[in-house]
Amino acid sequence: MELATLLKKPFLKGFINANLRGFLRDKETLQQSLQQQALTIQTSHEDWMVQQWRQQFGKKKTAEICHANNQPPTISLLLNPAFDGQALKADLKQQEFSIQENAPNSITLDNPTGLFNTTWAQQGAFLVQDLAFQKIPGLLQSIKKTKVLDACAAPGGKLFHLEWSFSSEIEQLVALEPSEKRLQRLRANKDTFKSKAKLYQMDARNITLEEQFDLAVVDAPCSGTGTLRKHPEIKWSRQKSDFIKNQEIQLAILEGVSKNVTPGGHLLYVTCSIEKEENQDVVEIFLKQRHEEFQLIPFSADLLSPEERTQEGYYQCFPSQRTMGAFAALLQKKK
Question: Which residues are S-adenosyl-L-methionine-binding (predicted)?
Answer without folding.
Answer: 152-158, 177, 203, 219
